[in-house]
């Protein structure tokens, strides 16, 4: 009998269902050296698809006794899993390690925030330096230049929140 991970397709630049963005997932092929990172990626991808319960063996088939509440609870769980998987696949691999001990979207968000949000004094100084050293380049679109400046200003405004 083949192991379940050998049956999974390789996923590369697959758009996430239900999103209009170009957010994509990438997974390395399983090999002898990457089981841990691969298994985390596979778990989250299966959560996104609403299939992780099959791996855990907790997915029960619908029966005559299945209530509307059971169906709604399952839909909520799938949406919660989708929140986490969207966060997981929208961050770089080194930051995925920060949230690998949870599968809860809000907890993952809280864990990521202090590690990447520019709130240190050094980061604020770097943003100010970037702002004051910005120059409008020859041939550059004015809208693009204005957007860069607006982005820096927004980062500065939100730095201490």
Short account of what is shown:
57% of the residues lie in helices and 4% in strands. It is mainly α. It has a two-stranded antiparallel ribbon.
Task: Give helix and strand order, one letter per element, not per position.
Answer: HEEHHHHHHH
Total domain units: 2
Q: Treating each run of at least 4 consecutive H or I residues as one helix, how many helices?
A: 8
The fraction of residues in strands falls at under 5%
Secondary-structure content class: mainly alpha
Low-confidence stretches: 1-22
Mean pLDDT: 76
Distance between the termini: 53 Å
Lateral arrangement of strands in the main beta sheet: 1-2
**Estimated radius of gyration:** 21 Å
- Please tell me what the overall shape is: elongated
What level of helicity do the residues show? 55-70%
Give a count of the beta strands, DSSP E runs of length 2 or more.
2
Largest sheet, strands/sense/barrel: 2 strands, antiparallel
Q: How is this structure best described in words?
A:
This protein has 161 residues and is mainly α. The chain has 2 domains: 29-114, no CATH class; 117-160, no CATH class. The protein is 57% helix and 4% strand. The chain is built from 8 helices and 2 strands, in the order H-E-E-H-H-H-H-H-H-H. The chain has helices at residues 4-7, 35-48, 52-56, 68-89, 93-99, 105-116, 121-132, 142-157, and strands at residues 12-15, 24-26. A two-stranded antiparallel sheet has the order 1-2. Strand 1 (12-15) and strand 2 (24-26) form a beta hairpin. It is elongated and about 70 Å long. The chain starts with a helix and ends with a helix. Residues 1-22 have low confidence and may be disordered. This is DUF4219 domain-containing protein. Pfam families: Retrotran_gag_2.
């Amino acid at each position: 009998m083949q192991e379940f991970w050998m049956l999974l397709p390789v996923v590369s630049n697959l758009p996430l269902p239900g999103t209009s963005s170009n957010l994509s997932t990438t997974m390395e092929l399983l090999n002898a050296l990457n089981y841990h990172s691969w298994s985390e990626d596979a778990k989250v991808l299966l959560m996104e698809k609403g299939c992780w319960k099959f791996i855990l063996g907790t997915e029960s088939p619908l029966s005559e006794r299945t209530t509307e509440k059971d169906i709604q609870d399952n839909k909520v769980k799938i949406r919660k899993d989708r929140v986490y998987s969207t966060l997981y696949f929208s961050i770089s691999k080194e930051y995925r390690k920060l949230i690998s001990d949870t599968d809860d979207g809000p907890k993952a968000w809280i864990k990521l925030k202090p590690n990447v949000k520019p709130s240190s004094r050094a980061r604020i100084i770097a943003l100010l330096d970037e702002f004051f050293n910005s120059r409008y380049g020859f041939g550059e679109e004015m809208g693009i230049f204005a957007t860069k400046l607006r982005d820096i200003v927004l980062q500065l405004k939100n730095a201490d929140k």
